[in-house]
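Next comes one such specimen:
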Amino acid sequence: MAVKIQTEQGIVQIENDVIAKIVGGAATDNYGVVGMASQNPLRDGINQALSGDNFAKGVVVRQQDNAVTVDVHIIVGYGMKISEISKSVQARVKNDLNSMLGIVAEEVNVIVQGVRVLGE
């Protein structure tokens, strides 16, 4: 399902894979984030970090009316403050979606799927 934005000239439709790449890039650029995790770890491998081509497996985008909600599944580094990393990811994802695509995310939910010791 794609996100649809109504403009004066018509409807702009942005596919979820495009949104997932931007969200995944924004999330992994944050200090303390080791990588993206799959939303279905039993099927795709528990605590397996996703590469850039597979960010869509770790991002869920929902649109209801004009409200967009994004779920981001991440793996954080051991010893990092999870609450601060989550706040940073939320802010970065909201900012990147707004500046690159013009999408205002009402909610960005960060789901920490695992903790990894750096160097593993």
